[in-house]
Write a structure and sequence with these properties.
The protein is of the alpha+beta class and 205 residues long. The protein has five helices and five strands.
Length: 205
């Protein structure tokens, strides 16, 4: 009787082992992975992202002109006027027309015609931050805007020729762009009114 009970107990233990081991091994693997992740990010400062963005905004403000900084501060994007004499690369029907770009953080550069607000193209460019050992490899928002601004104002032809060009709406919602262009128009009108009031308050020499 004792031998039979012992044999039964052994069989039960083997069955429980076969059933329970996969679950236990999975939990152990998860624990090890979580522990390794904690070790890898040891010393990571949650405030690093915020401080990096603050420094990036200061740098952006020191590089762009006063109007562009105020535009970014109030609207969240910067407009850059196009400077190619023959018009946009790949846009034959806008030769000689005034065109501009909208620069968003971490979104494609959007080209458009200010006269009609017609959207022309999206130009996808990325500037990863390979120097950051922790967290996201993306640049802070203001650094990304500054990198695109410098590329456009420094060598527009090169950045447009090497970027991945797509039709409007590929990554940026055209409705959002139209709203932002309307906001830009309202912002410019309000800014012009303020400048006129300021000029009118200055006493004549």
């Amino acid at each position: 009787m004792t031998v039979a009970l012992a044999a039964t107990a052994i069989v039960v233990l083997v069955l429980l082992w076969d059933v329970g081991w996969p679950v236990a091994s999975e939990r152990i693997a998860r624990w090890r992975a979580g522990r390794q992740k904690v070790i890898e990010i040891e010393g990571y400062d949650p405030g690093r992202e915020r401080r990096a963005e603050q420094r990036a905004r200061m740098l952006l403000r020191s590089c762009v002109n006063e109007e562009e900084w105020a535009m970014y501060r109030d609207l969240g994007f910067i407009r850059v006027w196009g400077g190619l004499s023959e018009g946009l690369v790949g846009e034959r029907d806008c030769s000689g027309a005034t065109y501009a770009y909208i620069i968003y953080p971490h979104k494609p550069i959007v080209a458009y015609l200010p006269q009609t607000r017609r959207l022309l193209s999206e130009y996808c460019v990325t500037f990863p931050d390979d120097t950051r050992p922790y967290g996201s490899a993306r640049l802070p928002d203001s650094d990304d805007v500054l990198a695109k601004w410098m590329a456009l104002t420094g060598d527009e032809r090169r950045i447009i020729a090497t970027a991945n060009m797509h039709l409007p709406g590929r990554q940026v919602d055209p409705k959002q762009i139209k709203r932002d262009l309307w906001r830009l128009g309202q912002w410019e009108q309000a800014r012009l009114r303020e400048q006129r009031r300021g000029a009118g308050s200055v006493p004549a020499p």
